[in-house]
Amino acid sequence: MNRKVAILGGTGPEGSGLAARWAAAGEHIVIGSRDANRAEETAKLLRARTGSSAKVEGADNATAVAQCQIVVVTVPFSGQAALLKQLKPHWRPGQILIDTTVPLAAAVGGTPSRMLNVWQGSAAQQARELVPESVAVAAAFHNVSAELLAQFGPVDCDVLVCSDDDQAKRVASELAEKIPGARAVNGGKLENARIVESITALLIGLNVRYKTHAVGIRLTGLPL
Length: 224
Fold this sequence. Notes:
By secondary structure, this protein is of the alpha/beta class. It has a single domain, classed as NAD(P)-binding Rossmann-like Domain (Rossmann fold). It is built from eight helices and ten strands. The strands form two sheets. An eight-stranded mixed beta sheet has the order 3-2-1-4-5-8-9-10, with helices on both faces. The chain has a two-stranded antiparallel ribbon with strand order 6-7. It is globular and about 40 Å long.
């Protein structure tokens, strides 16, 4: 497999969890961060965790985008727009952006669980506006527990994938299916990402009330 997958925000819990799962499944991963040294430190830890044959490297965000066909954004919503604006000169036609961002805010000292209004409709649609038209955009992985990703056991969760581009939807679905226990579900057009993103706020509330970090979603009755 020759493709590379960049994970921007790959030093954080969700990004490093996805990186570990995909590296273990044979994907070539590039951890992206504002700090290239921090990215390489995370890559080193992931290589030790996933085995000597795992292909994981670190780079600054711009370098990661420049060398990868697939780019996954796992940064907090507060940093999404600024990051994508900074990276605008580095995109190439035909690349795929998979956005996992959820527009959440928290009360002082609280858990981020309140949805913010996004003028474009969703964080994914905001990402669509901030990258060149030649880059395909999909929204996915909003509802997968970062804690479960880090544990390497099966992830009991469906992954809703929304996109207006068939190839981007296919690639995001392929990556979802590489996580044991996860199932990719076609969530329709990119505009539906606003619904999928809002489910995350509900899941966070359930995690708090039931004192767990493993709440996910399963859709029943699908002929899959």
